[in-house]
Amino acid sequence: MAMCAAVALACNEGLHPTTCPGICGTVTYHGSLPDSLRDSTAAVLVLAFSTFPQTPADLLHFQPPVPAFVDTGGPPRRFVLPVPPGSYDWVLAVWEKKSATSLGAGNADSLLREVGFYRDGGDTTAHGTGRVHVGAGGADAIDFVIDFTQMHRICDYFPPCPP
Amino acid sequence: MPTVRRLLLFALFVSTPVATVAAQGTAVLSGTVRDTLGQPLRGTVRVVGSALVGVADDRGRYRLEVPAGRVTVRIGHFGYRSVEDTLTLSAGDSVERDYRLAAVAVELQPTIVTAAKRSQFLDQSTTSVALVSDTDLARRAVETVDEAVNRAPGVLFLNGQVNIRGSSGFVEGLGSRVLLLVDGVPANQGDRGGIDWDMVPLADVARVEVVKGAGSSLYGSAALGGVVNIITREIPPGFHARVRATGGAYANPPFDVWRFRDHTGALEGLDGTASYGQGPVRGSLTLGGRHSDGYREQDRSDQWEMSGKAEWLPRPGTQVTTSGAWTSHQYQVFPTWCVATPLPGARPCDTRGQAFQPFLIDSSGAGSYTRSNKGYFTATLDRTVSTRFSWQARGSWLRTHFTDVNPDDWAVSNRIGAELRGVGRSASGRVATAGVEVARGDVTSDIFGEHTQNQLGVYGEVEQTLGRARLTAGTRVDYLDVDGSNATGVLSPRVGAVFPSRLGTWRASVGRGFRAPTLAERYVNTQAFGFQVIPNPGLHPETAWSFEAGNSAPLSSWGRLDAALFWTEARQLLEPTFVRVVDTVTTDTVEKIQIQNVSRARLRGLDASLAVTPLPGLTATIAYLFLDARDVADDSLLAFRPKHLLTLSADYRWRTLSVGGDFRYTSRIERIELEPVFGRDPRVSARVLDLRAGWQRGSVSARLLVTNALNYIYNLVPRTLEPVRTGSLVVTWTY
Questions:
Q1: 3-state secondary structure of A62
Q2: Mean pLDDT, to the nearest integer, of B293-303?
Q3: Which of residues 311-370 of B touch A (CB under 8 A)?
Q4: How large is the ipTM?
Q5: Alpha carbon distance B659, B702 (integer Å)
Q6: Residue B316: is its pLDDT beyond 50?
Q7: Which residues of B touch A69 (CB under 8 A)?
Q8: What share of chain A is helix, strand, coil (3-state, %, to 5)?
């Protein structure tokens, strides 16, 4: 009994304070949700892609499976994406439109808008992607701005855009 | 024989030793017989080599005339090591000698009443049974029944939901796959099918029997994974009383960043029991109350409880027993802990820069509070007609009423039941048990609606001795309906065998279990984790075939090993499932949660325990459960089933002092329900050490208990912190 207690004490693998179990940072709102979008807004999500989507269908393969839901305005808000260690090409905020149909590759362009993403200041790749490396201790300070006046269609990334 | 001759013979018989003693001259030996704790014993004082014997009274006092000269007396009592004392006495001496006897382990066959719905020896059971005795309850100094049962071999509680060999998993308390009995009377909630472990005051509990594996062949629905029978105390003759006071404190969080209050949380409780028995009538009453500040934010709890029991023995072989209890429990509800990124619809909370705050609540649950009132009343008539036949009739009423604040929900449910059972024994060793049981459950609730469920069960089981072996076979037929329709019939057979050999007693059984969907599972309409939970009235009963083979063998005179291999194949298990449905109001397609018959599961493993007494006063047990639980439908691990469960216990008693402890290791739960939502949450294995110490002198005892002594911070279900280190002192006075 005493030996077990000593072993348990020596290997205390209980829960410990954790600042970041994946990708963490702060989203700052540049303005608030316009009234014109208020009734049609389903959610604003923060999510990550391990590789930059090559097709609209890839847009549905994000991490984590349930993304972080964030407010649509107000003071800067901290987000935490509990994702496994690895490399992530794109960390972004997405505005989702209310819909009677399930989200799919076919309607992603009409239902989703990119409203902000993390960009590494030294990264000059196309679309300003900012690669995030998540180690065992997570990746913190992945900060970016949500601007509802600068929403981008999905087809901007997979041109051409339909009329 | 003529009366005068009988009297002469009797006079000769009783006067012979006296005449012999008188011829030698006599001395008087007197004193007391007590145990090592000072408790009086009605021990025997026997003069070795003669028929002279005296018996101590209920205060342990004895007086015996012995022949003068050198005499040896032997002092004995069942369950204690005899002592011999040699004295040299002169005629006319009056010598006082006090004797203390040390308790010894006596290999008594424990008697159980649950496995076969009748009294039998433990090693005659075809299924595994774990016992939690009143000694276990007392030395653990626990406050509620579940705390004591939680350390039984093969048993694990997940946030209050009992698992026997991984039977239930965790479904927010809904639909327990374990049937709770109180003195043999079913006591699962009438609406949710869950178990209120606080319904019976611990002070009333004599012992708990845990029957493992499917028990539906005798008990019907809910006995899918096992049966837990709480057996209350018998009422002794005369006046007796017991008062128990408890005080304690919770440890503060081990890291400053987790601190949530500037004072130490406390717990306290007081309960008292008084009983009186005179002639054929006996009665007892227990009153108690408890308060806890809780070990985390929004975790206060207040509970008041009362229970009573009356026994009437109008004539030999007939006993009427009525009992009841009422508990009122008001407690704050800790929703889920605070995380940096809350679920949809939830308000964010301040994590102080942390990913999660295990002691703080998700602020959308701020103010959540529950008032839970529950009670039961039973009346039982036991009649032993002859040594060959006995029968029992009983009626019961169970009522639960809860009111939740944030979200504001409420439900009132009743479960009324009756049973008639007979047990016959033939001269050839055959034992037959047969009975009929009816039950009606109803609920009125804002989230479950207004519904009723009826159940009729007819059962029979026969045990036949064949040489040294005992073979049993039986079955039960249940008929269930909901609101007068959706009628379902379920057949639950079971066969088993017990065979004593030089290598211990072998047992094997195979049986079918089932659990009917509860009214809550069929009709629930509420919110959980930010998702709407929608009803599913068309649910079917979940079923399981359960097989086990085991052996129980003594190890010399110092130990006993019990091991069983078990295998359960379960079908149509009811699990919460994400479904995409079109909202009728907004016409949006949204994800909702619904209970569905989705899973096929296989649970198999090894359940073993070893109990040893290597030294006088020292007892130790080691219990290990290996569980391989898989969802056969999608070839994945079954949620909320840890693979390894190890429990070590040791207790040492020296004179009036005792010390002991338990160590429980639960391997990390590899898979949980709602994996997409909580799958990335931190989960760790559990390593919990409980320490205890006790002191007893005369009518007063004190027990110190430190649970989770290492203050190991862990959780077993998503975002719900398990108890931190808690120290408590229990002082008991017994009259």
A1: coil
A2: 96
A3: 339-344, 348, 351, 353-356, 358
A4: 0.73
A5: 12
A6: yes
A7: 341-344
A8: 15, 35, 50
pLDDT tens readout for residues B558-588: 889 999 999 999 999 888 888 887 766 666 6
CB atoms B344 and A43 under 8 Å: yes
Low-confidence residues in chain A, pLDDT < 50: none
Pairing of strands B99-101, B129-132: unpaired
- Indicate the burial class of B556 (C-beta count within 10 angstroms; 0-12, 13-18, 19 or more): exposed
- B427 torsion bin: left (phi>0), alpha (psi -120 to 50), beta (else): alpha
Which 3 state secondary structure label does DSSP give B137?
A: helix
| Mean of pLDDT values over B465-474 | 94
Say what the pLDDT of residue B3 is.
Answer: 46
Task: State yes or no: pLDDT of B66 exceeds 80.
Answer: yes
Q: Is the peptide bond before B407 cis (omega within 30 degrees of 0)?
A: yes
Burial of B182 (C-beta count, 10 Å sphere; 0-12/13-18/19+): buried
Could you state, in order of their start, the residue ranges of all structural domains in chain B?
3-101, 111-129+136-226, 130-135+227-333+368-734
Asked if A15 lies within 8 A of B684 by C-beta distance, the reply is yes
We find that the CATH architecture of domain B111-129+136-226 is Beta Complex (2.170)
Query: pLDDT band at residue B371, thresholds of 50, 70 and 90?
Result: very high
- pLDDT tens for B508-543 read 999 999 999 999 999 999 887 667 889 999 999 999
* Separation of alpha carbons B105 and B108, rounded Å: 9
For residue B235, the 8-state DSSP code is P
Q: CA B118 to CA B120: how far, in whole Å? A: 6
Contact B68, B89 (CB under 8 A): yes
C-alpha distance from residue B702 to each of B233, B505, B553 (Å): 21, 39, 35
A65: chain B residues, CB-CB within 8 Å: 676, 679
Average pLDDT, chain B: 89
**Contact check, Cβ <8 Å, A82/B343:** no
* A contact test, residue of B260, B296, B341 with most A CBs within 10 A: B341
Higher-confidence position of B406 and B422: B422
The DSSP symbol for B518 reads: P
Query: Strands, E, within B251-300: which ranges?
Result: 266-278, 281-292
Report which secondary-structure segment, H or E, holds B521: helix B519-523
Paired residues of B475 in beta bridges: B460, B493
Topology given in CATH for the domain delimited by B3-101: Immunoglobulin-like (2.60.40)
**Under 8 Å between Cβ of B222 and B167:** no
Q: What pTM did the predictor assign?
A: 0.80
Contact residues on chain A for B343, CB-CB shorter than 8 A: 69
Q: Which CATH superfamily is domain B130-135+227-333+368-734 in?
A: TonB-dependent receptor, beta-barrel domain (2.40.170.20)
